[in-house]
Specification:
Number of strands: 5
Number of domains: 1
Largest sheet: 5 strands, parallel
Helix content: 40-55%
Strand content: 5-15%
Structural class: alpha/beta
CATH topology: Oxidized Rhodanese, domain 1
CATH architecture: 3-Layer(aba) Sandwich
Distance between the termini: 32 Å
Radius of gyration: 14 Å
Amino acid sequence: MPGYREGGYGEAVPSAPVGNNISYEDMKALVAGGGARIFDVRSPEEVANGHIANSINIPVTEIEEALKMDPETFKMKYAVDKPQVDEKNLIFHCQMGRRGALAAEIAKTLGYTNARNYAGGYKEWSEKEGK
């Protein structure tokens, strides 16, 4: 399945180093300032129940394939410009952090050196934002 490491999703995935994670406070500032590209890697069904403003939904199962697309194909499929490999604030998130960490790891292996994970995920965001 694209987007998953050999061995499947159930395989243990090392925790992302602290430097690869972003806090709620930093995420809130980036969302408010519009200074980040935020990818929500949850399923469309999860996103339908709520999402972080201006986030782009690309399920974790599609992340690797999506980031390998040429810019034109990416834009046609997701209706936004493909992130540059040196994008300063490239943030991935899911519900609680695991899939976001996996997506950030995949992005890093593809050369997106600034990819980070919002470890608190939508669960923390919705609790703190009251949504």
